[in-house]
């Protein structure tokens, strides 16, 4: 993935059925039917996403646990085989190099899935940091297709076409299975806030898209009775935003720390050393100056990245992600604001072009977690 | 109805390359966005319009339409004074998707310079232009 435009195995499906746009060097579907119906399909039933554009590396070797505990912020030693966790890699200043999900496939063999935009940067960083460890890092991005099946009907959709009893795969657990006759790694993870699975079709190079296409079609067929929707990156973005999940490049970057982003649960200070520890520890002791919060706009207007936030005519922060929420039918946003104002329920104003709209600081997720999301009470 | 590659381009209207249409009715100009524009934007969820009595100037932004993902400026096809705005689309922005040439109109203005109509596209020119999109 240098300067060439990337296409996934499903490029022809996307071209025929969707609206394409360039994202992180890939020609990807932004929508098929439209962002709103695809979004609602995932909240109410089930949706299928091609997320093959994401970066995938395997990291293995005798020192792998030591290495990953050094280069990432979460504690890898607590991760059992066939389980996964959310984590970050930071630079020496505690700034986030990327966020990702790390899967322990075997005692000494891990799979890391990170953002498409950071594929080259991460591979180089990991390789550089690995110099003094006995580990092997392999980029398998172009040999594995990756789909997400998300929504309350995700399990029922794919149960009919995989061998494994999916009830045994709890949230953030994973395992090997067969989808039809295809070697498949499956995990109960996702980027929508809903229950669902991420499916890795192994050994299917982009140059030979047959296996991946077969799996994609099998999932669409299996989900027919639930009106499964193929979903584009548009709905993926609105879903993750409603769920309160960060998007790298918008809500987090190398100038933002996990503490400011309020994902400090991925930073384990009890580890002896890891890249960024000193800086993060200092920030933890001194307290952060700004924090990521959720904003719900109370008046007209849709908040967008870079819009400024005010309290009593004083600028206190700015928006990093914002959209129309298909579920709440209101403008919602993520913003960084001064810590003393980052209080749930506090009213602020958002400058939307020439108008100032009232907004309220709210908790994540934006929706009622009893009604929507993976912990919904049915 | 004339259709060019999926987009409706009704006869009797003037068009701009900023995807707006103008319809002259008893000396007043009714203004809206084209079918091509609404199809590109897809789900329109917000419309911001100026007020009655305000003036608009040709090629200058006078408002915005927003889809879930994007913000687009509305660019005035001609200059004039706003007689009426379509407040219905502010409450139901989906009208721009459903019926861009009728219920989804945006403004009625009194043109300040009728010659400006010669600087934008007539129907035949608009059909030709839509073919290049």
Summarize this structure briefly.
Chain A is α+β, with helices and mostly antiparallel strands and 378 residues long.
Under CATH, the homologous superfamily of the largest domain in chain A reads Probable tRNA modification gtpase trme, domain 1
The count of domains of chain B is 1
Provide the CATH topology of the largest domain in chain A.
Answer: Gyrase A, domain 2
Approximate shape of chain A: globular
Report the order of strands and helices of chain A: HEEHEEHEEEHEEHEEEHEHHEEEEEE
Specify the oligomeric state: heterodimer
| Number of helical segments with 4 or more residues of chain A | 8
**Would you identify the regions of chain A where 5 or more consecutive residues have pLDDT less than 50?**
none
User: Biggest sheet of chain A, open or closed, and with what strands and sense?
Assistant: 6 strands, mixed
- The beta-strand count of chain A equals 19
The CATH C-level name of chain B is Mainly Beta
Description of the molecule:
The complex is a heterodimer of chains A (378) and B (133). With 378 residues, chain A is α+β, with helices and mostly antiparallel strands. Chain A has 3 domains: 11-52 and 142-241, 2-Layer Sandwich (Gyrase A, domain 2), CATH 3.30.1360.120; 56-139, Alpha-Beta Plaits, CATH 3.30.70.1400; 289-363, Elongation Factor Tu (Ef-tu), domain 3, CATH 2.40.30. Helix content of chain A is 20%, strand content 33%. In chain A, the strands form 4 sheets. Chain A has a 6-stranded mixed beta sheet with strand order 10-11-12-9-3-13. Chain A has a 6-stranded antiparallel beta barrel with strand order 14-17-16-15-18-19. A 5-stranded antiparallel beta sheet of chain A has the order 5-6-7-4-8, covered by helices on one side. The longest helix of chain A has 13 residues, at 210-222. The radius of gyration of chain A is 21 Å and the shape is globular. Chain A starts with 10 loop residues before the first helix and ends in a 16-residue tail after the last strand. Chain B is globular. Chain B is α+β, with helices and mostly antiparallel strands. The model of chain B has no long low-confidence stretch (mean pLDDT 96). Helices cover 20% and strands 36% of the residues of chain B. Classes of the chains: A alpha+beta (378), B alpha+beta (133). The interface between A and B is medium-sized, with 17 and 11 residues.
């Amino acid at each position: 993935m240098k300067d060439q435009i990337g296409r996934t195995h499903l490029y022809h499906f996307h071209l025929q059925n969707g609206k394409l746009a360039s994202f992180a060097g890939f020609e990807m579907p932004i929508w098929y039917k439209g962002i709103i119906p695809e979004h609602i399909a995932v909240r109410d039933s089930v949706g299928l996403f091609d997320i093959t554009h994401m970066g995938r590396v395997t990291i293995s070797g005798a020192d792998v646990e030591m290495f990953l505990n050094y280069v990432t912020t979460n504690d890898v030693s607590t991760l059992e085989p066939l389980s996964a966790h959310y984590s970050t890699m930071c630079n020496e200043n505690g700034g986030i190099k990327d966020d990702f999900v790390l899967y322990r496939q075997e005692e000494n063999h891990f799979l890391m899935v990170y953002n498409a935009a950071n594929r080259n940067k991460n591979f180089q960083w990991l390789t550089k940091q690995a110099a003094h460890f006995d580990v092997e890092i392999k980029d398998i991005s172009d040999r594995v297709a990756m789909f997400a099946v998300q929504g309350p009907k995700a399990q029922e959709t794919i149960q009919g076409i995989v061998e494994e009893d999916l009830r045994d795969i709890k949230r953030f657990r994973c395992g090997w299975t067969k989808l039809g006759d295809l070697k498949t790694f499956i995990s109960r993870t996702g980027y929508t806030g809903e229950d669902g699975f991420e499916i890795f079709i192994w050994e299917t190079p982009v140059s030979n898209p047959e296996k991946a296409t077969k799996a994609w079609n099998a999932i669409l067929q299996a989900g027919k009775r639930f009106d499964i929707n193929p979903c584009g990156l548009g709905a993926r973005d609105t879903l993750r935003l409603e769920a309160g999940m960060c998007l790298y490049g918008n809500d987090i970057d190398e100038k933002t720390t996990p503490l400011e982003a309020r994902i400090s649960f991925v930073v384990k200070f009890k580890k002896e050393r890891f890249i960024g520890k000193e800086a993060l520890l200092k920030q933890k002791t001194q307290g952060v100056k700004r924090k990521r919060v959720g904003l719900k706009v109370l008046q007209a207007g849709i908040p967008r990245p870079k819009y400024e936030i005010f309290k009593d005519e004083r600028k206190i922060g700015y928006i990093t992600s914002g959209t129309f929420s298909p579920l709440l039918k209101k403008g919602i946003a993520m913003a960084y604001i001064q810590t003393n104002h980052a209080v749930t329920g506090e009213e602020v104003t958002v400058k939307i072009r020439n108008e100032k709209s009232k907004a309220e600081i709210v908790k994540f997720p934006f929706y009622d977690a009893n009604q929507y999301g993976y912990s919904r009470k049915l | 109805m004339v259709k060019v590659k999926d987009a409706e381009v009704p006869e009797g209207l003037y068009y701009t390359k900023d995807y707006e249409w103008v319809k002259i009715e008893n000396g007043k100009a009714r203004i809206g966005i084209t079918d091509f524009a609404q199809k590109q934007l897809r789900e329109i969820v917000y419309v911001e319009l100026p007020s009655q009595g305000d003036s608009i100037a040709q090629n200058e932004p006078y408002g915005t339409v927003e889809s879930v993902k994007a913000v687009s400026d509305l660019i005035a096809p001609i200059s004039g004074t706003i007689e009426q705005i379509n407040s219905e689309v502010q409450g139901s922005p989906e009208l721009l998707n459903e019926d861009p040439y009728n219920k989804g109109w945006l403004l009625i203005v009194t043109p300040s310079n009728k010659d400006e109509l010669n600087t934008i596209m007539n129907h035949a020119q608009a059909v030709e232009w839509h073919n290049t999109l």
